[in-house]
Specification:
It contains 6 helices and 2 strands, in the order αββααααα. By secondary structure, it is mainly alpha-helical. A hairpin with a 5-residue loop joins β1 and β2. α3 packs antiparallel against α4.
Length: 126
């Protein structure tokens, strides 16, 4: 909680006799709100304006816009991950992983390069 208090997202209502920060129910609600938005993938930099908007009483439109942007980012990431998963499934299900340019680090490339003549490497016929 000290992290969020130092970051000015929540404010302690007082300090105990031992010097500990004490928070009220409102600070706990804000903390739950912040942690929930973090689980949804928003950063503290994205959350801060939402907390400020809530303090002003106009969080609804600001929150909706932020959530719509986050949803678009998640959808884009899902599309990317779906494509990666599709490629991985194709590679894993192949009986033998084909030696493709972008995946090849084996000796076959070195052997093929040595087998070519210098004229072939330059694209000229001998």
């Amino acid at each position: 909680m000290r992290f969020y208090a130092d970051d000015k997202l929540i404010t302690p209502v007082r300090r105990s006799a031992g010097g500990y920060r004490e928070f009220d129910e409102r600070a706990l609600r804000v903390l739950r709100f912040v942690r929930h938005l973090q689980r949804l993938g928003l950063t503290l930099a994205q959350i801060r304006p939402l907390v400020r908007a809530a303090e002003r009483g106009d969080a609804s439109a600001t929150l909706r816009a932020s959530l719509e942007r986050q949803l678009a980012a998640v959808d884009a990431r899902l599309a990317e991950l779906t494509s990666v998963a599709h490629e991985l499934r194709a590679l894993v299900s192949a009986k033998e992983v084909a030696c493709r340019d972008e995946l090849c680090i084996c000796r076959c490339r070195d052997d093929a390069a040595r087998a070519r003549s210098p004229a072939d490497a330059l694209g000229r016929a001998e």
